Amino acid sequence: MPRIVLALIWLFSDYLDTVYQTKLWPMLGFLFLPLTTLAYAFAMHFGAMQWTPIGIVAVVTAVLVDLGLFHTGRSARGRGAKAITVKGVKVG
Looking at residues 60-87, what average pLDDT do you find? Predict the structure, then answer.
């Protein structure tokens, strides 16, 4: 979902252009840390291009969520499907 929001903001507004000087950072953010890219843009707009406590909390939280999503995806792929057994009968 953050990638969809980031793409829509990038296509239909100049919200990211005022924060990022080049198109490279939003593109890298789209690929690797989309929520962090959005949070940084919010933090810079909220604080008038200055860091504020709310901006710092937003960016740190976004980084943790982005990294947590990467970890969850990797661990879920590695587990594979497990059999479900109820009272000794395999049901799934």
Answer: 74
